[in-house]
Design goal:
heterodimer, A: alpha+beta, five-stranded mixed β-sheet, 2 helices, 5 strands, 19% helix, globular, B: mainly beta, four-stranded antiparallel β-sheet
Chain lengths: 88, 358
Amino acid sequence: MPVVRLRGPLKSRAGNRSEHALEGGSVGELLLELERAQPAAQGWILDERGVLRRHINVFVNGELGSQDTPVDADGLVDVLPALSGGCR
Amino acid sequence: MTELLVGTRKGLFVLAGEPGGRFGVTARAFAGEPVEYALRDRRSGRVLASVTSPFYGPKIWYADDPAGDWQQAEGVALPARGGAALERVWVIVPGEADGTVYAGGDPGALFESRDGGVSFSLNRGLWEHPSRPQWQPGAGGLCLHSIATWPGDPDRLAIGISAAGVWLTDDGGASWRSGNEGIVARYLPDDLPAEDEVALCVHRLRRAPTQPERMFMQFHGGVYRSDDAGESWSDIAPGLPSDFGFPLAIDPADADSAYVIPLTADVDRVTPDGRLRIYETRDAGATWTPRGDGLPAEHAYLTILREAFDSVGEGDALELYCGATSGAVFGSADGGSSWFDVATHLPPVLSVAASGAR
């Protein structure tokens, strides 16, 4: 099962747990599943449209990905704030 | 002792002090994050703050002690998978009914809380208004920034949206009608059909609590007064150095009073002539008097944003406070006659909310 890894405030919103094994075949599916499993994280990574927030980056097995990036059953997705978000 | 909740580009600063001198910073929260607006609900003592994390999006938080733990309010979101996302919460306003709190956001969204700000729900009457497809955002987005309650009547509200004009409800938000008669938008064609005149860039609304039909408006090029609860508006800008600006304050004890802070023009959003002056009327806009004693008088090209001007008290005890994007906060303990420095080196000030001793 793929694992979504969180840190900082996102980890705090998700039961203070970093690693979350979830069902899904893409980054988007995994993040939706994360919201369902951890309601307190709802709206923090995806907005109401279900779109990845602009200044959140996702890395799939260490490579920068997107919401549509496929994730293997043993894949690892890191969710991190982007450098771009701190510009102001 | 007066308390100021100062929202800045880099967090919330709680300032406290005796009017007349510098205030001290008693708490800081949300360090590094833009705090759009924060206020202390005088009924409950609870502090509510609108924070727009550049990473995690807009949220409302609440705390009994701003130096303590904050909780995220629930329900501050647009309908899931509805095609729109909340961009920012501009303002939070206590309602008339017990526990009622309103929040206004971009894109033109009004949220209501019945439990003092712990949870909110979207006002559907406004969200689903048939004219919404014609609403246009201003430079700051489609921001619902002004919420004017009616003392003693929780069903009556007036709101201002940039740039979708004034909206009024008499049934607690179930239905809404526009209230824009008399407003002249110089940035629109003269021959625009009236039904298309929804692109009205209201900058700030205030209601006189002792005479609720009386309202004042700072417009995007215009200052107006309404004597019929926001249905129609009369130009009261003559006498001001510029009719462009954002903030507006009133003396709650005097329905003929208003204060504005003119900026040079929409293409030059700094204080005119390199000096900061607050303009006061005590005759409902017939005349304006500049107030600048103690304020920067030369080489001062300041910008005071929409929410960065507030008051506490009334009449002879009226205190006024405004903050600039330079990081300076100014105060007056005598209704604007004289001013003092409250703080000088904060991050860019987005909002100021004043409350009395606690």
